[in-house]
Amino acid sequence: QLQTKHSHRRQKILVVANRLPTKPKRDAEGNWTFERCSGGLVSCLAGIQQKFDMVWLGWPGADFNDTEKEMVANEAMKQGCYPVFLRQSLIDEYYNGFANNVLWPLFHYIMPPFDKGVNECSTEQWGAYKKANEIFTEAILSVYEDDDYVWIHDYHLMLVPKFLREAKPDCNIGWFLHTPFPSAEIYRTLPWRQEIIESLLHSNLLGFHVYDYLRHFLSSCVQLTSLEISAHTIDATTIGGCIVKCATVPIGISPDEFLWAMKKPEVQSKIEHLHEQYEGRKVILGIDRLDYMKGIPHKLMAFGCFLEHHPDWADKCVLVQLAVPSRRDVPEYQRLQRQVHELVGQISGKHSTISAGVPVIYMDSSMSPDDLTALYNVADVALITSLRDGMNLVSYEYIACQHGKQHPGVLILSEFAGAAQSLGAGSIRVNPWHLQDTANAIHEALTMSSEEREALQEYAFKYVTEHTAQKWAETFLQCLQEACSDLMEVTSQ
Ligand code: G6P
User: Fold this and answer.
1) Predicted complex ipTM exceeds 0.95
2) Helices 160-167 and 193-200: angle between axes, nearest 10 degrees
3) Is the CB of 366 under 6 A from ligand 1?
4) Which of 17, 41, 321, 395 is 20 to 30 A from 472 in CA distance terms?
5) Percent of the chain with pLDDT over 90
6) Residue 325 alpha carbon to ligand 1 centre in Å
7) What Cα–Cα distance (Å) separates residue 294 from each residue in 290, 322, 345, 391?
8) Is 148 touching ligand 1 by the criterion CB < 6 Å?
9) Pocket lining: 19 vs ligand 1, CB cutoff 6 Å
């Protein structure tokens, strides 16, 4: 357990992420309340809260007027959250713009259109990104106390380490990337590559999901800086940075939450209901944020291809696809939704039958945790076709919910998801760009023997239960503590 030098208080962790783990809700009288979000980073850090004081800093997800801000801040603080207010114009340029229209695609290997360079618009967005990162830094400084550990999350806040180090030279800073870090050949196309990488090198620890992302980051450092790098450690002191440790710390889920949920009578009755509803049909399940990196069109096209080759399966299986709306103000996401709707229509038009109805049940919505658990449990196949994905915890959740079944289902997993490096041997791995490959995998999964399915499930379940969210958070904080104390030793020599 981390200890503070000040014996009167527990070690404090400042968790800094773009988004707070709470959702603002306005009641009938116009008052704001906050609802804790389920899943995601919130449940990953739940275990840590038992050991450390934790303060969350993040954007509360909406634009509030000045009179609302105080009420919102008071409500959020009741849940240990410290809202970082951003004006709508800044959200447009920083969040919708630079973070989600420049960095997000590039970190997932999507280059700007081949006939266009970076335009003025992105330059303005870069200014907004800097501004937002400054605002986050000011918010951190307003709650920061000596010896705190600051854990910064993701691609939205990559300039915070430098701003923070300049203000607090002794600050303990860790940063974790939830997306892939792309190959250096992709990263170095970014006009602001230098500023970003140099800022990150003001952290004590940089964490990545899988070794490849770490390796790509180190290659970028080699190409873009002349710093000394050895054994995953970069000496950035000559540029005012740190002796930076880089580590692979793969995230996980809290499998117990799903195992407990499955025992609840209300979930059991939902499971029974779903079995009745889909009797005689195998359920193939897709759950994704509606994001172009999730490869939803590729999944639909591969499913269409499977039905073309195996028309006898048209009334014996159903693809249930949940597409949770996301980043609706970014035009690319709006285009994606139209494309997906069109594909669902095409497949349904072609393969629906009077006896079995439509082959695809598609929903533009999220689902309650209980409904989700029941659906995961009932599904015979989970189909994940991400074109790139930092990790993909849906695959972990599916494995957790297949536990205890006499005939477990099969996970089909894109080899471009970080999870393929952990659950690969417990799944059928596919190249989602190769539609026929995915179509063949669907057939293989639907016709696989019980013994084979059990062997895959056993392997994957063991991994999921051994590499939990709690372990991820503890390991990261442990590495951060070590990185900071090593640094103290070096500087005191
Ligand atoms: C990815 C990112 C997260 C982000 C999440 C949802 O997983 O790595 O940082 O919170 O997507 O996206 P949103 O833009 O809604 O926060």
Assistant:
1) yes
2) 50
3) no
4) 321
5) 81
6) 12
7) 7, 12, 19, 11
8) no
9) yes
Is the per-residue pLDDT at 4 higher than 80? no
Ligand 1 centre to CA of 390 (Å) is 11
The preferred substitution site among 152, 178, 293 for testing ligand 1, maximizing ligand atoms within 8 Å of CB, is 178
pLDDT by residue (tens digit) across 120-151? Answer: 678 899 999 999 999 999 999 999 999 999 99
Asked whether 276 and 322 are in contact (CB, 8 A), the reply is no
Distances (CA, A) of 103 to 100, 184, 272, 425: 6, 14, 44, 31
Ligand 1 center from residue 5 Cα (angstroms): 35
Ligand 1 contact via 288 beta carbon (within 6 Å): no
Q: pTM for this one? A: 0.95
291 C-alpha vs ligand 1 centroid, how far in Å? Answer: 10
Q: Quick one: pLDDT at residue 38?
A: 62
Strand partners, 411: 382
- Does the C-beta of 327 come closer than 6 Å to ligand 1? yes
Take atom 9 of ligand 1 and give the residue whose Cα is closest: 154
Residue 6 has pLDDT above 80, yes or no: no
| Alpha carbon of 37 to ligand 1 centroid (Å) | 13
Mean pLDDT to the nearest integer, 376-397: 98
Q: What is the dihedral of CA 209, 210, 211, 214, to 10 degrees?
A: -40
% the chain with pLDDT above 70: 95
Give tens-digit pLDDT for 158-213: 999 999 999 999 999 999 999 999 999 999 999 999 999 999 999 999 999 999 99
Q: Give the whole-angstrom CA distance, residue 180 versus residue 178.
A: 7
Distance 331 CA to ligand 1 centre (A): 17
Query: Is the pLDDT confidence value at 1 over 60?
Result: no
